[in-house]
Amino acid sequence: MEHDAWRKANLGRDEWVYVWADGIYSGLHGAADRLCALVVIGVNARGEKHFLAIEDGVRESTQSWREVLLGLKSRGLNAPKLAVGDGAMGFWAALEEVYPTTRQQRCWVHKTGNVLNYLPKRSQPKAKKALHDIWQAETREDARKEFDLFVDTYEAKYPKAVECLVKDRDELLTFYDFPAQHWQSIRTSNPIESAFATIRHRTKRTRGCLSRDGMLHMMFKLGQCAEKSWRKLRGFAHLADVIEGVDFINGIKPSTQNQAAA
Fold first, then answer.
1. Does residue 248 form part of some domain?
2. Strand 36-44 relative to strand 16-25: parallel, antiparallel, unpaired?
3. Interacting residues of 168 by C-beta distance below 8 A, sequence separation 6+
4. Are residues 12 and 30 in the same domain?
5. What average pLDDT does range 246-262 have in this prediction?
6. Is 73 helix (H, G, I), strand (E, B) or coil?
7. What is the DSSP annotation of 92-114?
8. Per-residue buried b or exposed e for 8-36, using 16+ beta carbons within 10 Å of the residue's own CB
9. Is the pLDDT of residue 262 over 50?
10. Using CA atoms, how far apart are residues 260 and 262, in angstroms rounded to an integer?
11. Residue pLDDT, tens place only, 173-219
């Protein structure tokens, strides 16, 4: 099958800089047979985004993600500079085993939804604005101030909401160490979410008609079609600096003079 051949393709020809990971639940609705596809998208040194993995997983478990990452490593995937995903996944434990040098960025869209779930409906709009103020801050220092303000505002009445946010504090702000031109792409796992919006629409119409392998193959084929319309990463010229290990400060590359002085 086409999907099987794609799953074995060599990834070592490219330098992979960023990866996004997520577990996508399909329209398969057998009693214990709901398919969770473990999906990884990567961007290479030229700024081109590609699906790297679309695999059958078990509730986003660490073991399932370990198998996916070991498979990618065996196909030549280098250690990416940054991985982006939802904090609830077993992905992070697996990443630390397989690619321990890869930096971690938690998805702000997932985190916002998870935090708001601990708040009553009437409080959610104001809290959402407060969360927005954190990740929209110009500098890490400003983001930390907004972070502290959120904690002070909600900790007494809604400790679980604050706990949900605080446990990933550092990993939510990693993006400040990368080019500002890339922030829009690396603060969330939206590249996967947007790609699967159309795929979900198509798979809903066929649920009940396909096996697990059939559903995975359909996801793969639809993914390949979606990939053709993807644009290069905004600000892709800065990927060379990321690969070289340039330390960006609040999204800005230090000037040559500053680096010489250091």
1. no
2. antiparallel
3. 87, 106, 111
4. yes
5. 75
6. helix
7. HHHHHHH-TT-EEEE-HHHHHHH
8. eeebeebebbbbbbbbbebbbeeeeeebb
9. no
10. 5
11. 999 999 999 999 999 988 887 777 766 665 555 555 567 777 788 88
